TrEMBL record:
Residues 4-153 form the Glycosyltransferase 2-like domain. It comes from Brumimicrobium glaciale. SUPFAM superfamilies: Nucleotide-diphospho-sugar transferases. Belongs to the glycosyltransferase 2 family. GO terms for cellular component: membrane. This is Polyprenol monophosphomannose synthase. Keywords: Glycosyltransferase, Membrane, Transferase, Transmembrane, Transmembrane helix. GO terms for molecular function: dolichyl-phosphate beta-D-mannosyltransferase activity. The keyword Transferase applies. Signal peptide: none annotated.
Amino acid sequence: MIRQVFSYEKEFHLLIVDDNSPDGTAQKVKDLQKEFPTRLFILERPEKNGLGTAYKAGFDWCLEATYNYIFEMDADFSHNPDDLIRLYEACAKEGVHLSIGSRYCKGGKIKNWPVMRVLMSYFASIYVRMILWIGIKDTTAGFKCYTREALEKVNYDIIPFKGYAFQICMKYGVRKHKLGIVEVPITFIDRQRGTSKMSSGIFKEAFFGVWKMRKMKL
């Protein structure tokens, strides 16, 4: 994934947030930093504390480093890095503050997912729209580009969620600040590397968490 992102004509920088992973991620990144010393960075944390807190740490790091466009994506190739440029251009050229790599907008697709997983994800997004009136078709999407202004305005420090609910809450926060959002159709392919983080706890957090979001001062 690192080499793929760095192969494009447009220059991207990468921050890897590693929560003391036992799979050797941190050392591999450090080895590659010798090859990409000005573009590849790592933020090491002492223990695994959920996806949401990793995103917060990453956002803080990016804002301190004065980046104007901040992306988030999975590194298992379910998100095609070729789409990074499309997400960037959606923000930079269309003037919106959040572009979403969407599976469920017109032109979006899913490949190689079991039917039940597709149905669960699709109807979860419908459920979120019914509760939050958020106006986004792919509410749990994790492939996104934020502008600096969006991350500075959304009070993400108060978000208590650690799983998919964090993704929903961030979109809701951008919407509450009346910042522009656009969905960019992507083809989502079932992970080619790694294993899923989905669990019953994460599902319950998202199911009940949307009700809590309505009262949060994001």
